[in-house]
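Replying to the earlier thread about multi-chain prediction with a worked example.

Input:
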Amino acid sequence: KQEVTQIPAALSVPEGENLVLNCSFTDSAIYNLQWFRQDPGKGLTSLLLIQSSQREQTSGRLNASLDKSSGRSTLYIAASQPGDSATYLCAVRPDTGRRALTFGSGTRLQVQP
Amino acid sequence: DTGVSQDPRHKITKRGQNVTFRCDPISEHNRLYWYRQTLGQGPEFLTYFQNEAQLEKSRLLSDRFSAERPKGSFSTLEIQRTEQGDSAMYLCASSLVAGGASGNTIYFGEGSWLTVV
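Result:
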């Protein structure tokens, strides 16, 4: 059974810092990995999707990397801003034809102004 | 394109009552998903439709839960004889797969909060 772990569970940083969020998964047979952002009481917003054949994806100040063989992904946020404060979730889709995503519990980020 | 729409956004019900949630996916998205999320946890998969066919169901989807997508557009999730453990946010998501492409990004709605008292 796939398990996804996100470390740290919570993180508080001053504005302007670069930071890294970690995601690990136990079964490397994945089709893709997706990073989401969730604001309190809201739905999820997709940030980046990395196919299993890719090593990284970039969007603006965000960069996500994937090391499938070691079961790890990182989300790098450059020059953090208070508006980045949210919970960040990673999710993996299995390489079995099934569509169900397995999510981690998220990292709750607070960027202090 | 108005995004994934869910209704109602909040529902408080007494234990034992039935509740129904509706999801309107992004127009022309052929895949629709239901997830459940409790506080402090990531979403858990419940079920998935491609067009009107329900192709996957989680074991979390007990016989009190039923989901439909009758015409391949909107979907409903019904919970019968609600229990306090059903209290959660129910999230709907949709995606588009065209031709053979299946990299697809999944788009989530704002969720429907259920509180069973």
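Chain B has a mean pLDDT of 91.

Feel free to reuse this layout for your own posts.
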